[in-house]
Design brief:
Elements lengths: L3 E2 L6 H9 L4 E2 L4 H16 L24 H11 L4 E4 L2 H15 L8 H13 L2 E2 L2 E3 L8 H11 L4 E4 L2 E4 H7 L11 H6 L3 H31 L9 H7 L2 H14 L3 H5 L11 H4 L1 H24 L6 E3 L4 E3 L7 H28 L2 H4 L16 H17 L21 H6 L1 H25 L7 H11 L12 H13 L7 H4 L7
Parallel strand pairs: 1-2
Antiparallel strand pairs: 3-5, 4-6, 6-7, 8-9
């Protein structure tokens, strides 16, 4: 067990832990609000007034009044009818996030669900009962309806789930874990389906991978700078203070710290004939700093979404009102996902240009393709081509999704966010980015080796050692695919920056 799921105020660190396998409990302080919201909702259900989703149909059918004896059937029907997801199931870390995010939203007490429903969500997370949620089928409008219906199905003992690595019927998974399905009360099916938890989980998962890749790209960028015997003058604090961009200032400080004490740098301070390095070296603070500011903005938007209530209608227990609105519209998540996609693309573009520079003897001052006896050996020639292919793939994926609205539900839902597939592309983009940075890491480490007996800085020596622990020096041609994969995994896991986390740990603010 790790931490508590609160009704708001959950730090990004909690969501990172959930994605990594932690099982937080529900904060006991939420129980009063959940109970009050449920009591008010039940009172409204017993009354004569029409309340959307409680005693009416859904979407275009909101004007259809449902008789009291069929209210429970109404909630089961919405769960069954909305199970229209398609495609491969979401990965385990994302499903874990969906469960925790849904529990956090319901914990505000503004959805009117019974406490047992929230308890079961948290218990499923704790016991590892993970609903099988197809990745496709949501437009991010009235919540992530289709994927969340597949989650809700397991809560009522239907659908499918994975437990202990085995896919099985939902009721079987609950039984094996010692859990009992809930019987849905008024509005509970709708409350489970409404919300942006799937798109938010996908975006958070992408954010966490991109954060690791960003930090690693600062390390490989510094390594590449030293490998080509580049200048660290462009990282001088005075340059960046004059511009005043916060991300740029922070990135320049990290690059200075990483390169401090490099014998390679000292060796060419006095007599370097070059005036300026290429932009992929010289403008790292400007490009990476702008990307950092974008990531920070997306982080803030997603944190607010993770801690908010995205259901409809909403129960105001203190005022006795039930209000119908549109908090389920995932536009904030869609914008955040697009921002992250652009940042990931640009980080990869810059790293790829450094890969191209490293294999070019005119620009790098190193042997062609970073290998002895070029010609007989091709060295990193095709590794650089692979980095270009990955960067191109990310450029194709980086087109905005939020502007691709399309009317649905007989024009009742006439503007949608497309947040879910906008966020879903972040995982593959982040994987591509980690591979690009992994290729640069291999090349930069090779360049540092070729500068021997001169050594790089103490901090970059640690990064060099981490790379060499999974990939030896390339002295003659050999297959590189497995080594590229190992270094990409090092980047994705944060392992490349672990030896000096204190240098980069403050880049992303709240942990």
């Amino acid at each position: 067990m790790s931490g508590l799921i609160r009704a708001g105020g959950n730090a990004l660190g909690l969501w990172r832990q959930v994605a990594a396998g932690a099982t937080p409990a529900l904060d006991p302080a939420t129980r009063g609000a959940i109970a009050r919201g449920h009591e008010l909702l039940m009172a409204k259900a017993r009354g004569n007034d029409a309340v959307y989703g409680v005693n009416t149909g859904f979407g275009k059918l909101a004007s259809v009044r449902i008789p009291a004896e069929k209210l429970a059937e109404l909630q089961v029907n919405i769960v069954r009818s909305h199970q229209a997801g398609m495609g491969e199931p979401l990965e385990e870390p994302i499903v874990r996030l969906v469960l925790a995010l849904k529990a956090a939203s319901l914990a505000h007490g503004a959805s009117g669900v019974q406490p047992a429903t929230v308890d079961l969500l948290v218990a499923m997370l704790r016991e590892g009962v993970l609903p099988v949620i197809p990745a496709q089928g949501s437009v991010g409008a009235s919540g992530d309806l289709a994927p969340l219906a597949h989650l809700a199905a397991v809560l009522i003992g239907e659908g499918e789930a994975v437990w202990c690595g085995t896919r099985m019927a939902g009721d079987e998974a609950l039984a094996k874990a010692g859990l009992t399905p809930v019987v849905l009360g008024p509005k509970e099916g709708l409350a489970l389906l409404n919300g942006t938890q799937v798109s938010t989980a996908l975006a958070l998962h992408g954010l966490f991978l991109i954060e690791n890749a960003f930090a690693a790209a600062l390390v490989t960028g510094a390594l590449s700078t030293d490998a080509i015997a580049g200048s660290d003058t462009p990282f001088d604090a005075r340059i960046h203070t004059l511009r005043g961009q916060p991300g740029q200032i922070a990135v320049a400080a990290v690059l200075r710290a990483l390169m401090e004490g490099s014998a390679i740098r000292r060796s060419h301070l006095a007599d370097d004939p070059r005036v300026q390095d290429p932009y992929s070296i010289r403008c790292q603070p400007q490009v990476m700093g702008a990307a950092l500011d974008v990531i920070r903005s997306a982080q803030a938007m997603l944190l607010a979404e993770a801690n908010g209530v995205t259901d409809n209608p909403l129960v105001m227990a203190d005022d006795g009102d039930v209000l119908s609105g549109g908090n389920f519209h995932a536009e904030p998540v869609a914008f955040a996902a697009d921002m992250l996609a652009l940042a990931a693309c640009e980080i990869g573009n810059l790293a790829q240009r450094r890969c191209a520079m490293l294999v070019d003897p005119v620009l790098s001052g190193l042997p062609a393709f970073l290998v002895r006896e070029p010609g007989l050996n091709s060295g990193f020639m095709i590794a650089e081509v692979a980095s270009a292919a990955l960067a191109s793939e990310n450029r194709q994926k980086a087109a905005p999704a939020v502007t691709d609205t399309i009317p649905t539900s007989a024009n009742q839902e006439d503007h949608v966010s497309m947040a879910t597939h906008g966020a879903r592309r972040l995982g593959p983009m982040a994987e591509n980015l980690c591979r690009i940075i992994g290729i640069e890491a291999l090349m930069a480490a090779q360049g540092i080796d070729m500068r021997a007996p001169l050594s790089t800085s103490p901090l970059l020596e640690k990064a060099h050692a981490a790379i060499r622990a999974v990939a030896p020096v390339l002295d003659r041609d050999r297959p590189l695919a497995a080594e590229m994969a190992r270094v990409a995994a090092l980047v994705a896991s944060g392992g490349l920056t672990t030896p000096f986390g204190h240098v980069v740990e403050r880049l992303f603010g709240e942990s």
